[in-house]
Amino acid sequence: MSTSTTAPRPARALPPLMQVSDAAAERLRGLYAGGQEGKLLRVAVNTKGCSGMAYDLTWADAPGPGDEVVTTNGVTVLVDRKATLFLIGTTMDYEVKAMSAGFTFVNPNEKGRCGCGESFHV
Questions:
Q1: Per-residue pLDDT tens over the stretch 16-75
Q2: DSSP β-bridge partners for residue 67
């Protein structure tokens, strides 16, 4: 009787939970140094809108027990642990347009967005 063993396959690297673009990092540094000094931005996903889910940004004094701490591009953000499956591989950006400015998300898990762009589904 012959036995053979095969070496286990090396684990594939997981994509980062979330990235922060240069523009978003610059904006966050400004917010952290100004009126939101000592606070951290928390990113969550809530049930909302016509497509079912929406990004929810709030300020927190410190990480909570349900937060993942993500440090990327020189800034730290919190990610609600319940949102991690929806956000894996997401990049948070900051866009300035003619009539608006704000954080945006490039999320590879999104399958579609509503017409107004306020909500998404996976």
A1: 789 999 999 999 999 999 888 899 999 998 887 666 788 899 999 999 999 999 999 999
A2: 80
The top-level CATH class assigned to 18-108 is mainly beta
Query: What percent helix, strand, coil does the chain show, rounded to 5?
Result: 15, 40, 45
Report the mean per-residue pLDDT for the chain: 84
All structural domains of the chain with their residue ranges: 18-108
Residue type, 65: P
Tokens of 112: 């579609």
If you search the block for the tokens 């070496």, which residue do you land on?
7
Closest of 80, 101, 81, 77 to residue 91, by C-alpha: 77
Amino acid at 61: D
Question: How far is Cα 66 from Cα 31, in angstroms, rounded to an integer?
Answer: 23
